[in-house]
Amino acid sequence: MTNGIQIGPNVVQFEDPFIEIRILAFSPFTGLGDLVVEKRQPNVGFYYINISFASGDSVRLDYDGANLNNPDTWELRSSHRNDTIVRVWATKVR
Fold first, then answer.
1. pLDDT (mean) for 33-45
2. Largest CB tally within 10 Å, which of 12, 29, 63, 80?
């Protein structure tokens, strides 16, 4: 599958006044990728981070900005080989 979004450590997939989301890497062959959420200010709140794939798969990450134990890098996974990421968005819950 082709026509996915541009991916790289300097490419921002989503941003708002509180957070910035980047996908560091994604392998279409394995369906695995790494996502980073950077806070722009303290106490950013709680977000649902959604990733949609060309195959129709999707992933939702529950991001709690107040949690000091959040991983530095979040793992993404599609169950389809040769998949691509087509959309990344986040919804602030509280």
1. 91
2. 63
